[in-house]
Amino acid sequence: MEKKFKRILIVLVIIVGIVTLPNLINSSDGEKMQLSISTPQEDLVREVFSYPTGNYEGKVERITLRANGDIMFHGPQIDGAYKNGKYDFNPSFRHVKKYIESADLALGNFESTTAGGTPSGYPVFNAPDESVETLSRIGYDVLATANNHALDKGKNGVIRTIDKIAENNMVSVGTYKEPGENIYIAEVENIKIAVLSYTYGLNGMESMLSSQDREYMVNLIDKEKIEGDIKQSKENGADFTIVFIHWGNEYQLKPSSYQKELANSMFQWGADIILGSHPHVIQESDIIYIDGEAKYVIYSMGNFISNQRRETLGSIANSTHTEDGVIVDLVLEKDFVSGDKRIVGVNYIPTWVNRTESNGSFHYEVLPVRDALKGDYNDYTKAKLQASYENTMGKMQLYGEIGANK
């Protein structure tokens, strides 16, 4: 009898709890009470649920950002891609497509224009529209367009390049059609990432723009402007600010003192990641701590694809290194409960441009070096791949989980 009474009492307690739970959760002014529940899931600190709806409100999120350097289309590349009355650049990127499309946010430096008319390579770059279509197809989200060739086809070239990138569901940064467009913030898994882009110059073509257009159409390196843009990006809600910057000296394997000084200034202003281009060779990367926070810089990501190579540059110093590139693989994290955000880790996918000849034309393909070394290439090509790998990774001394190197 006593046991039966206890069972009845337990049932009554449960019923009372069910009846009164909504009143416990909802306060007198209608606000919802929040409960924190710890979970053992990987990369998850805690989940916060709002009752009675059960809406998911907070967690730790990690995303992968991948970026690479100069994407260039020289004359021989354009000629080699022409088949059956149209251009096909897909074969050039088929080996790296899986790395680009699998990133949560993929960025590249588009060092050309798509101005329409007759395509051309160096010294006046004007790539076929199919080049941008291919970059979209393999998974790019953002293309930096502030570089020394941005004005190769004048103001109309700048505008049409922006339009063609947008038509292919990508965003261009660094060149603009209207004033006030220079702060772009991508949102990935609710993490907000500002992407800015600047160039050291425009090959003396600045006069192709009016003084008014020069104020906004192409971002030139100006310390006051960069500092203002970085701070504005934070005010606009950016969790991370990336600066794509076209700087340094061509074919130099080490960054200049100017690059290092400017990088340090940008970090002090609030930049989190600096991605360098223009030297056409790999330069070192580094992780710098500002007030205990890890900041990442790679001074030059090298050429992702181009016709710059040992066969074409002749006696130019370090010409063999112009075939080398790297996809920088960054992992970013934000805790949506505490608001903390950080760069969790960085790794690298070294690349090398292979050129072959058939039927009187050259064909180009970007090879992920680690994959290609396991592939069916001859010993001569594998020797070049191995040398490329050693050159690139010899400069990428910090990789893996960030924190241990502090």
Automatic annotation (TrEMBL):
Domain Capsule synthesis protein CapA stretches = 64-308
Tell me the SMART domains matching this sequence.
PGA_cap
Q: Which residues form the signal peptide?
A: none
The family note in this entry says: Belongs to the CapA family.
Annotated protein name in UniProt: Poly-gamma-glutamate synthesis protein (Capsule biosynthesis protein)
Organism equals Alkalibaculum bacchi
